[in-house]
Amino acid sequence: MAAKPDAGVLLAAVESTSEAVLITLAALDEPGPLIEYANPAFTHLTGYRADEVVGRSPRFLQGPGTDRSVLDRMRAALVAGRSFQGEALNYRKDGSAYMVEWLITPVRNVEGRLTHWISAQRDVTDRRAMEDRQALLVRELHHRVKNTLATVQAVLNATLRSAQGFDAFRKAFANRIGSLAKTHNLITEGAAQAVSFETLLRTELQAYDEPGRGRVVLDGPAVTLPSEIAVPVGMALHELATNAVTHGALSHPEGRVEVRWTVADRTLTLTWNEHGAPPPSLPTREGFGSLLLNRILTAQIGARVDIAFDRDGLRVSVTIPLGAEGERPRPPGPADPA
């Protein structure tokens, strides 16, 4: 049988470990459990010197953000003489909070009587933040997939209603899904999972803006759209651009498109104006996807859409609620399956 290390070796090991270690007396009722020993890693973690903690209960590290239910589970395990592992919010000497993971184990003498508790502690603040971030991303992904499926359903239904023949349907549907994919790519480029409104506009219109001719005019303040709003807005801009190129102002050499927008009271108001086109006519089945615009914008994000025909081209005004500052916009409702 291998010889056990002497007390000096054990103390040196505890003193040199990077894990914070506390040794307390066994009594749990206040003022206990009283701290008998704190290693250097504990003083580094909490900012307290050893002489400032010895003789006190570890309860002094708790504060307003400490989860009471975790403490209750810990006490129940210790009262039963069992080990306990858990996490809670503690506070350093300077008042800063940190998430600590405990492993508390009982120490018994040769007669089996519980005499002390040894608590090994680790700062898991960064790990918990990463886990919370991962959980948030999973929820965001679930939310976005649900929204995307609703958008695809609306696109499919509107394309089926407007297309004349399978080839026309295939082309229109493929283009719309391609636009949806581009918007998703823009959203996922940054950690914020959002995209600027101007970027969405330029993605759809930059190919038709001829240098020096001013065929595309964009004017408005910087505004960032979260994914819940960016996806349907991106689809709407694709419909407007497609119509302008196929039937509207950009289908004629002298035509141009002006998009101007403002933001006030957490509301985005945009106006799409087409100029230089022949006298407009009412939308046809092959033309402007007004049905899809209303399905996507009105049904999903509560926008108001007004479509009018000026003497020299189409004019579309859209008002989009952005939600309260610091809050998510309201979740989109299900797409109309009809």
Summarize, please.
The protein is an alpha+beta fold.
Principal-axis shape equals elongated
Rg (CA only) = 32 Å
Number of domains: 2
First-residue to last-residue Cα separation: 79 Å
Query: Which fold name fills CATH's third level, the topology of the largest domain?
Result: Heat Shock Protein 90
Main sheet properties:
5 strands, antiparallel
Query: In the CATH hierarchy, what is the architecture of the largest domain at level 2?
Result: 2-Layer Sandwich
Count of separate DSSP helical elements: 9
Brief descriptors of the model:
elongated; 12 strands; 2 domains; five-stranded mixed beta sheet; alpha+beta; 338 residues; Heat Shock Protein 90; Beta-Lactamase; single chain
Describe the structure.
The chain is α+β, with helices and mostly antiparallel strands and about 350 residues long. The protein has two domains: about 120 residues, PAS domain (Beta-Lactamase, 2-Layer Sandwich); about 190 residues, 2-Layer Sandwich (Heat Shock Protein 90), CATH 3.30.565. It is built from nine helices and twelve strands. It has a five-stranded antiparallel beta sheet. The chain has a five-stranded mixed beta sheet with strand order 7-9-10-12-11, covered by helices on one side. α6 packs antiparallel against α7 and α7 packs parallel to α8. The termini are far apart. The C terminus is likely disordered.
